[in-house]
Design goal:
Blueprint: H1 2-27, E1 30-36, H2 43-62, E2 71-77, H3 82-95, E3 100-102, H4 107-120, E4 124-126, E5 141-143, H5 148-161, E6 166-172, H6 175-187, E7 194-201, H7 209-216, E8 222-226, H8 231-241, E9 248-250, H9 257-263, E10 271-274, H10 290-304, H11 310-329, H12 333-341, E11 346-347, E12 352-353, E13 369-374, E14 377-380
Parallel strand pairs: 1-2, 1-3, 3-4, 4-5, 6-7, 6-8, 8-9
Antiparallel strand pairs: 10-13, 11-12, 13-14
Helix pairs in contact: 2-11, 3-4, 5-6, 8-9, 11-12
Length: 382
Amino acid sequence: MRTRLITGILSAVLLSVFLGSSLALAAEPIKIGGLFSVTGPASFLGEPERNTAQMVVDEINAAGGIKGRKLQLIAYDTQGDSTKAKQLVNKLIKNDKVVAIVGPSTTGDSMAIIGDVERAGIPLVSCAAGSKITDPVKKWVFKTAQNDGLAVEKIFDYLKKMKISHVAILTVSDGFGSSGREQLKAKAAKYGIKLVVDDTYGPKDTDMTPQLTKIRSSQAQAIICWGTNPGPAVIARNVKQLGIKLPLFMSHGVSSKKFIELAGDAAEGIILPSGRVIVSDVLPQQDKQKKSLISFVKDYQKHYKAEGDHFGGHAWDAIMLLKGAIERGGVTPAGIRDALEKTVNFAGIGGVFTFSRTDHAGLTKDAFVLVQVKNRDWALVK
Protein backbone atom coordinates (compact mmCIF):
# COMPACT_ATOMS: atom_id res chain seq x y z
CA MET A 1 0.00 0.00 0.00
CA ARG A 2 2.76 2.34 1.02
CA THR A 3 4.71 1.50 -2.14
CA ARG A 4 1.70 2.36 -4.30
CA LEU A 5 1.29 5.66 -2.43
CA ILE A 6 4.95 6.62 -2.96
CA THR A 7 4.74 5.61 -6.60
CA GLY A 8 1.63 7.74 -7.03
CA ILE A 9 3.26 10.74 -5.42
CA LEU A 10 6.38 10.36 -7.58
CA SER A 11 4.25 10.07 -10.69
CA ALA A 12 2.33 13.19 -9.76
CA VAL A 13 5.55 15.09 -9.11
CA LEU A 14 7.09 13.95 -12.41
CA LEU A 15 3.92 14.85 -14.28
CA SER A 16 3.90 18.26 -12.65
CA VAL A 17 7.57 18.82 -13.58
CA PHE A 18 6.92 17.62 -17.14
CA LEU A 19 3.88 19.84 -17.57
CA GLY A 20 5.70 22.78 -16.02
CA SER A 21 8.65 22.30 -18.36
CA SER A 22 6.33 21.98 -21.35
CA LEU A 23 4.45 25.14 -20.44
CA ALA A 24 7.72 27.03 -19.90
CA LEU A 25 8.96 25.81 -23.28
CA ALA A 26 5.71 26.80 -24.95
CA ALA A 27 5.98 30.25 -23.39
CA GLU A 28 9.43 30.93 -24.82
CA PRO A 29 9.25 33.72 -27.39
CA ILE A 30 10.08 33.21 -31.04
CA LYS A 31 13.11 35.43 -31.64
CA ILE A 32 13.20 37.49 -34.83
CA GLY A 33 16.25 39.62 -35.59
CA GLY A 34 16.11 43.09 -37.13
CA LEU A 35 18.86 45.12 -38.81
CA PHE A 36 17.86 48.68 -39.68
CA SER A 37 19.67 51.93 -40.48
CA VAL A 38 17.93 53.83 -37.68
CA THR A 39 20.62 56.52 -37.57
CA GLY A 40 23.05 57.79 -40.19
CA PRO A 41 22.38 58.87 -43.79
CA ALA A 42 19.82 56.12 -44.43
CA SER A 43 17.78 56.80 -41.28
CA PHE A 44 14.79 57.85 -43.41
CA LEU A 45 14.68 54.18 -44.45
CA GLY A 46 15.61 52.48 -41.21
CA GLU A 47 13.60 54.44 -38.68
CA PRO A 48 10.16 53.74 -40.21
CA GLU A 49 11.23 50.13 -40.85
CA ARG A 50 12.26 49.59 -37.22
CA ASN A 51 9.11 51.36 -35.97
CA THR A 52 6.86 49.32 -38.23
CA ALA A 53 8.51 46.00 -37.38
CA GLN A 54 8.00 46.61 -33.67
CA MET A 55 4.43 47.81 -34.21
CA VAL A 56 3.49 44.67 -36.15
CA VAL A 57 5.18 42.36 -33.63
CA ASP A 58 3.30 44.08 -30.78
CA GLU A 59 0.00 43.66 -32.62
CA ILE A 60 0.65 39.97 -33.32
CA ASN A 61 1.46 39.44 -29.64
CA ALA A 62 -1.62 41.34 -28.48
CA ALA A 63 -3.72 38.97 -30.61
CA GLY A 64 -2.22 35.92 -28.92
CA GLY A 65 1.05 35.47 -30.79
CA ILE A 66 1.67 32.60 -33.18
CA LYS A 67 0.24 29.29 -32.00
CA GLY A 68 0.32 30.53 -28.44
CA ARG A 69 3.90 31.85 -28.56
CA LYS A 70 4.86 35.52 -28.56
CA LEU A 71 7.30 37.07 -31.01
CA GLN A 72 10.36 38.92 -29.75
CA LEU A 73 11.99 41.45 -32.07
CA ILE A 74 15.69 41.94 -31.34
CA ALA A 75 16.62 44.94 -33.49
CA TYR A 76 19.98 46.65 -33.95
CA ASP A 77 21.03 49.85 -35.72
CA THR A 78 23.54 49.29 -38.54
CA GLN A 79 23.90 53.06 -39.07
CA GLY A 80 24.09 52.24 -42.78
CA ASP A 81 27.58 50.79 -42.22
CA SER A 82 28.28 47.45 -43.91
CA THR A 83 31.04 46.53 -41.47
CA LYS A 84 28.70 47.15 -38.55
CA ALA A 85 25.97 45.16 -40.30
CA LYS A 86 28.30 42.14 -40.49
CA GLN A 87 29.14 42.42 -36.79
CA LEU A 88 25.51 42.70 -35.80
CA VAL A 89 24.21 39.87 -37.99
CA ASN A 90 26.66 37.53 -36.30
CA LYS A 91 25.50 38.78 -32.91
CA LEU A 92 21.92 37.98 -33.88
CA ILE A 93 22.86 34.51 -35.12
CA LYS A 94 25.39 33.41 -32.49
CA ASN A 95 24.37 35.27 -29.33
CA ASP A 96 20.66 36.00 -29.72
CA LYS A 97 19.85 32.71 -31.49
CA VAL A 98 17.21 34.23 -33.79
CA VAL A 99 15.28 32.00 -36.21
CA ALA A 100 15.00 34.65 -38.95
CA ILE A 101 16.17 38.18 -39.70
CA VAL A 102 14.36 41.21 -41.17
CA GLY A 103 16.44 43.85 -42.97
CA PRO A 104 18.90 45.42 -43.55
CA SER A 105 17.61 48.72 -44.91
CA THR A 106 20.17 49.25 -47.67
CA THR A 107 21.46 47.24 -50.61
CA GLY A 108 25.07 47.60 -49.46
CA ASP A 109 24.35 46.29 -45.95
CA SER A 110 22.23 43.46 -47.35
CA MET A 111 24.92 42.33 -49.77
CA ALA A 112 27.51 42.45 -46.98
CA ILE A 113 25.70 39.91 -44.79
CA ILE A 114 24.45 37.42 -47.39
CA GLY A 115 27.43 35.14 -46.88
CA ASP A 116 26.83 35.13 -43.11
CA VAL A 117 23.18 34.09 -43.27
CA GLU A 118 23.84 31.57 -46.02
CA ARG A 119 26.56 29.87 -43.95
CA ALA A 120 24.43 29.90 -40.81
CA GLY A 121 21.25 28.74 -42.55
CA ILE A 122 19.09 31.60 -41.23
CA PRO A 123 16.35 33.06 -43.45
CA LEU A 124 16.85 36.74 -44.25
CA VAL A 125 14.05 38.98 -45.55
CA SER A 126 15.84 42.11 -46.77
CA CYS A 127 14.12 45.49 -46.89
CA ALA A 128 16.44 46.80 -49.62
CA ALA A 129 15.75 47.19 -53.34
CA GLY A 130 18.87 46.06 -55.21
CA SER A 131 18.04 43.31 -57.71
CA LYS A 132 21.32 41.53 -56.99
CA ILE A 133 20.21 40.73 -53.44
CA THR A 134 18.06 37.91 -54.81
CA ASP A 135 19.31 37.64 -58.40
CA PRO A 136 20.76 35.11 -58.70
CA VAL A 137 18.65 33.31 -56.09
CA LYS A 138 20.32 32.54 -52.77
CA LYS A 139 18.84 29.71 -50.72
CA TRP A 140 18.25 31.67 -47.50
CA VAL A 141 17.70 35.22 -48.82
CA PHE A 142 14.37 36.87 -49.70
CA LYS A 143 13.36 40.52 -50.04
CA THR A 144 10.29 42.76 -49.81
CA ALA A 145 11.43 46.01 -51.46
CA GLN A 146 10.48 46.09 -55.11
CA ASN A 147 13.42 45.32 -57.42
CA ASP A 148 15.06 48.31 -59.04
CA GLY A 149 14.79 46.54 -62.41
CA LEU A 150 10.99 46.69 -62.13
CA ALA A 151 11.20 50.40 -61.24
CA VAL A 152 13.33 51.04 -64.33
CA GLU A 153 10.76 49.29 -66.53
CA LYS A 154 7.95 51.40 -65.03
CA ILE A 155 9.79 54.61 -65.92
CA PHE A 156 10.81 53.39 -69.38
CA ASP A 157 7.22 52.37 -70.15
CA TYR A 158 6.16 55.95 -69.45
CA LEU A 159 9.01 57.48 -71.47
CA LYS A 160 8.11 55.29 -74.45
CA LYS A 161 4.48 56.39 -74.14
CA MET A 162 5.63 60.04 -74.08
CA LYS A 163 7.91 59.38 -77.12
CA ILE A 164 11.03 60.32 -75.16
CA SER A 165 14.05 58.45 -76.48
CA HIS A 166 17.15 60.43 -75.40
CA VAL A 167 17.79 60.25 -71.66
CA ALA A 168 20.47 61.36 -69.21
CA ILE A 169 21.05 59.27 -66.09
CA LEU A 170 22.65 60.48 -62.87
CA THR A 171 23.19 57.74 -60.29
CA VAL A 172 24.68 57.70 -56.80
CA SER A 173 27.93 55.77 -56.38
CA ASP A 174 26.76 53.34 -53.71
CA GLY A 175 25.16 49.87 -53.77
CA PHE A 176 21.66 51.13 -54.58
CA GLY A 177 22.85 53.53 -57.25
CA SER A 178 25.20 51.03 -58.88
CA SER A 179 22.44 48.42 -59.08
CA GLY A 180 20.03 50.97 -60.56
CA ARG A 181 22.63 52.11 -63.09
CA GLU A 182 23.17 48.51 -64.21
CA GLN A 183 19.43 48.07 -64.75
CA LEU A 184 19.03 51.40 -66.58
CA LYS A 185 21.85 50.50 -68.99
CA ALA A 186 20.71 46.91 -69.46
CA LYS A 187 17.07 47.73 -70.26
CA ALA A 188 17.38 50.95 -72.29
CA ALA A 189 17.73 49.37 -75.75
CA LYS A 190 14.65 47.18 -75.24
CA TYR A 191 12.57 50.36 -74.90
CA GLY A 192 14.27 52.21 -77.75
CA ILE A 193 15.99 54.57 -75.33
CA LYS A 194 19.47 56.01 -75.86
CA LEU A 195 21.43 57.06 -72.77
CA VAL A 196 23.12 60.22 -74.00
CA VAL A 197 24.70 61.02 -70.61
CA ASP A 198 25.74 58.48 -67.98
CA ASP A 199 27.13 60.26 -64.92
CA THR A 200 27.40 59.66 -61.17
CA TYR A 201 27.63 61.57 -57.90
CA GLY A 202 28.88 60.70 -54.42
CA PRO A 203 26.54 59.89 -51.50
CA LYS A 204 27.87 62.92 -49.58
CA ASP A 205 28.02 65.38 -52.51
CA THR A 206 26.20 68.64 -51.88
CA ASP A 207 26.30 70.21 -55.34
CA MET A 208 25.70 68.44 -58.66
CA THR A 209 25.71 71.49 -60.95
CA PRO A 210 28.76 70.25 -62.96
CA GLN A 211 26.96 67.03 -63.94
CA LEU A 212 23.70 68.87 -64.62
CA THR A 213 25.46 71.54 -66.71
CA LYS A 214 26.82 68.74 -68.91
CA ILE A 215 23.32 67.26 -69.17
CA ARG A 216 21.86 70.65 -70.12
CA SER A 217 24.19 70.89 -73.11
CA SER A 218 23.43 67.35 -74.28
CA GLN A 219 20.60 65.97 -76.43
CA ALA A 220 18.76 64.65 -73.36
CA GLN A 221 14.97 64.94 -73.39
CA ALA A 222 14.64 63.80 -69.76
CA ILE A 223 16.77 63.15 -66.67
CA ILE A 224 16.60 60.08 -64.44
CA CYS A 225 18.21 60.39 -61.02
CA TRP A 226 18.84 57.18 -59.07
CA GLY A 227 19.60 57.49 -55.37
CA THR A 228 18.30 57.92 -51.85
CA ASN A 229 18.07 61.08 -49.76
CA PRO A 230 19.59 63.59 -49.51
CA GLY A 231 21.32 63.53 -52.93
CA PRO A 232 18.18 63.45 -55.11
CA ALA A 233 16.76 66.46 -53.26
CA VAL A 234 20.00 68.36 -53.96
CA ILE A 235 19.70 67.44 -57.64
CA ALA A 236 16.09 68.62 -57.75
CA ARG A 237 17.12 71.98 -56.29
CA ASN A 238 20.11 72.26 -58.65
CA VAL A 239 17.86 71.55 -61.65
CA LYS A 240 15.57 74.39 -60.61
CA GLN A 241 18.49 76.75 -59.91
CA LEU A 242 19.98 76.09 -63.35
CA GLY A 243 16.64 76.67 -65.05
CA ILE A 244 16.64 73.20 -66.64
CA LYS A 245 13.17 72.47 -68.03
CA LEU A 246 13.64 68.77 -68.81
CA PRO A 247 11.29 66.29 -67.11
CA LEU A 248 12.99 64.92 -63.98
CA PHE A 249 12.39 61.35 -62.82
CA MET A 250 13.50 59.80 -59.54
CA SER A 251 13.77 56.23 -58.31
CA HIS A 252 11.59 54.58 -55.67
CA GLY A 253 14.48 55.29 -53.30
CA VAL A 254 12.86 58.65 -52.45
CA SER A 255 9.28 57.44 -52.17
CA SER A 256 8.36 59.24 -48.95
CA LYS A 257 7.32 62.69 -47.76
CA LYS A 258 10.89 63.21 -46.55
CA PHE A 259 12.02 63.78 -50.14
CA ILE A 260 9.38 66.48 -50.66
CA GLU A 261 10.45 68.14 -47.40
CA LEU A 262 14.11 68.14 -48.46
CA ALA A 263 13.52 69.30 -52.04
CA GLY A 264 10.86 71.88 -51.21
CA ASP A 265 9.34 73.68 -54.20
CA ALA A 266 11.90 72.01 -56.47
CA ALA A 267 10.07 68.69 -56.01
CA GLU A 268 7.02 69.95 -57.90
CA GLY A 269 6.29 67.89 -61.02
CA ILE A 270 8.87 65.17 -60.35
CA ILE A 271 7.70 61.66 -61.31
CA LEU A 272 8.81 58.37 -59.78
CA PRO A 273 7.71 54.75 -59.38
CA SER A 274 6.38 53.85 -55.95
CA GLY A 275 4.50 51.25 -54.03
CA ARG A 276 0.82 52.10 -53.60
CA VAL A 277 0.95 53.04 -49.92
CA ILE A 278 1.59 56.76 -50.45
CA VAL A 279 -1.55 57.03 -52.62
CA SER A 280 -3.64 54.40 -50.80
CA ASP A 281 -6.54 56.79 -50.21
CA VAL A 282 -7.21 57.24 -53.94
CA LEU A 283 -6.90 53.60 -55.00
CA PRO A 284 -10.01 51.84 -56.32
CA GLN A 285 -11.90 49.68 -53.81
CA GLN A 286 -11.18 46.50 -55.79
CA ASP A 287 -7.41 46.92 -55.42
CA LYS A 288 -6.08 43.75 -53.73
CA GLN A 289 -3.74 45.70 -51.47
CA LYS A 290 -6.06 48.50 -50.40
CA LYS A 291 -7.27 46.86 -47.17
CA SER A 292 -3.72 46.16 -45.97
CA LEU A 293 -2.53 49.60 -47.06
CA ILE A 294 -5.26 51.55 -45.26
CA SER A 295 -4.78 49.45 -42.11
CA PHE A 296 -1.03 50.05 -42.13
CA VAL A 297 -1.32 53.81 -42.71
CA LYS A 298 -3.85 54.18 -39.85
CA ASP A 299 -1.82 52.00 -37.47
CA TYR A 300 1.40 53.90 -38.09
CA GLN A 301 -0.35 57.25 -37.67
CA LYS A 302 -1.85 56.06 -34.38
CA HIS A 303 1.46 54.81 -32.98
CA TYR A 304 3.94 57.37 -34.31
CA LYS A 305 1.90 60.44 -35.30
CA ALA A 306 3.28 60.28 -38.83
CA GLU A 307 2.26 58.83 -42.17
CA GLY A 308 3.13 55.20 -42.85
CA ASP A 309 5.31 55.16 -45.95
CA HIS A 310 6.80 53.00 -48.66
CA PHE A 311 9.81 52.09 -46.51
CA GLY A 312 7.97 51.14 -43.34
CA GLY A 313 5.86 48.97 -45.63
CA HIS A 314 8.89 46.83 -46.44
CA ALA A 315 9.18 45.86 -42.77
CA TRP A 316 5.40 45.29 -42.48
CA ASP A 317 5.62 42.84 -45.36
CA ALA A 318 8.71 41.12 -43.94
CA ILE A 319 7.18 40.51 -40.49
CA MET A 320 3.84 39.38 -41.92
CA LEU A 321 5.54 37.05 -44.41
CA LEU A 322 7.51 35.51 -41.54
CA LYS A 323 4.32 35.19 -39.49
CA GLY A 324 2.66 33.22 -42.29
CA ALA A 325 5.77 31.09 -42.78
CA ILE A 326 5.98 30.24 -39.07
CA GLU A 327 2.29 29.34 -38.98
CA ARG A 328 2.74 26.97 -41.93
CA GLY A 329 6.30 25.72 -41.47
CA GLY A 330 7.03 25.88 -37.74
CA VAL A 331 9.74 27.74 -35.85
CA THR A 332 12.93 26.18 -37.20
CA PRO A 333 14.95 28.27 -39.66
CA ALA A 334 14.66 25.52 -42.29
CA GLY A 335 10.90 25.26 -41.84
CA ILE A 336 10.50 29.04 -42.11
CA ARG A 337 12.67 29.17 -45.24
CA ASP A 338 10.75 26.41 -46.97
CA ALA A 339 7.38 27.98 -46.12
CA LEU A 340 8.53 31.42 -47.31
CA GLU A 341 9.48 29.94 -50.66
CA LYS A 342 5.94 28.55 -51.02
CA THR A 343 4.20 31.89 -50.32
CA VAL A 344 1.55 32.62 -52.96
CA ASN A 345 -0.61 35.73 -53.53
CA PHE A 346 0.23 37.50 -50.28
CA ALA A 347 -1.27 41.00 -50.62
CA GLY A 348 1.09 43.21 -48.65
CA ILE A 349 2.20 46.83 -48.66
CA GLY A 350 4.80 46.59 -51.40
CA GLY A 351 2.71 44.44 -53.72
CA VAL A 352 1.23 40.97 -54.12
CA PHE A 353 4.01 38.49 -53.34
CA THR A 354 4.47 35.04 -54.88
CA PHE A 355 7.81 33.41 -54.08
CA SER A 356 9.16 30.27 -55.70
CA ARG A 357 12.33 28.21 -55.95
CA THR A 358 13.52 30.51 -58.76
CA ASP A 359 12.13 33.83 -57.45
CA HIS A 360 12.87 35.16 -53.95
CA ALA A 361 11.77 38.73 -54.79
CA GLY A 362 8.19 37.75 -55.48
CA LEU A 363 6.85 40.85 -57.26
CA THR A 364 6.11 42.01 -60.79
CA LYS A 365 6.10 45.44 -62.43
CA ASP A 366 2.49 45.81 -61.26
CA ALA A 367 3.81 46.33 -57.72
CA PHE A 368 4.59 49.90 -58.81
CA VAL A 369 2.46 52.87 -59.71
CA LEU A 370 3.83 56.12 -61.08
CA VAL A 371 3.36 59.08 -58.76
CA GLN A 372 4.03 62.78 -59.23
CA VAL A 373 4.62 65.59 -56.76
CA LYS A 374 1.75 68.06 -56.89
CA ASN A 375 1.32 70.85 -54.34
CA ARG A 376 3.83 69.17 -51.98
CA ASP A 377 1.94 65.89 -52.00
CA TRP A 378 1.77 62.68 -54.05
CA ALA A 379 -0.68 62.19 -56.91
CA LEU A 380 -1.21 59.20 -59.22
CA VAL A 381 0.06 59.56 -62.77
CA LYS A 382 -2.71 58.27 -65.04
